[in-house]
């Protein structure tokens, strides 16, 4: 288990004032132990850290993308290889920014679910997502079965 600092624990209590009560309602799959406050705090701390990191990285990536777009014609001249290289760089940076935004959205959604006391419940089936799944991927919103069905449908 990860050691949570006193400052982090205080931030978690402020951010999630009902966590001690709500964690008792977090469902588990057959054979899993009930959620403990400590386990929920560890996941909340991880998600809050990820949120801060992603916001910083996204701000930096947005600046880089803006610079690339603003300077897209500089230095390219008539050389198509330079133009293609610049276009590829812009496309890669745009993909990176979009992926970071998606991950930040997923992180915020997971934090909202903790706040609302609906964390650990599959959004499709209303069944437990599974403690082990959430500890491996805290942003999960679907049970393994619901995720498998979604992937089979090509969603």
Automatic annotation (TrEMBL):
> Which InterPro entries does UniProt cross-reference here?
DnaK_N (IPR037187), Znf_DskA_TraR (IPR000962), Znf_DskA_TraR_CS (IPR020458)
Q: Where is this region: Disordered?
A: 59-89
Q: Which UniProt keywords apply?
A: Metal-binding, Zinc, Zinc-finger
A Pfam family it matches: zf-dskA_traR
Which stretches make up the Zinc finger DksA/TraR C4-type domain? 117-152
Asked if Zinc-finger is a keyword of the record, the answer is yes
ZnF region ranges: dksA C4-type: 122-146
Name listed for the protein in its UniProt record? TraR/DksA family transcriptional regulator
């Amino acid at each position: 288990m990860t050691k949570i600092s006193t400052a982090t624990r205080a931030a978690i209590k402020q951010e999630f004032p009902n966590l001690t009560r709500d964690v008792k309602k977090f469902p588990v799959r057959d054979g899993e132990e009930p959620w403990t406050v400590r386990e929920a705090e560890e996941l909340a701390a991880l998600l809050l850290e990820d949120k801060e990191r992603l916001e910083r990285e996204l701000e930096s990536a947005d600046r880089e993308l803006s610079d690339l777009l603003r300077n897209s014609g500089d230095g390219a001249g008539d050389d198509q290889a330079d133009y293609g290289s610049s276009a590829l760089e812009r496309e890669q940076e745009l993909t990176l920014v979009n992926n970071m935004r998606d991950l930040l959205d997923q992180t915020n959604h997971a934090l909202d679910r903790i706040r609302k006391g609906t964390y650990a419940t599959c959004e499709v089936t209303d069944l437990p997502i599974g403690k082990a799944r959430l500890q491996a991927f805290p942003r999960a919103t679907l049970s393994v079965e619901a995720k498998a069905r979604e992937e089979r449908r090509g969603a």
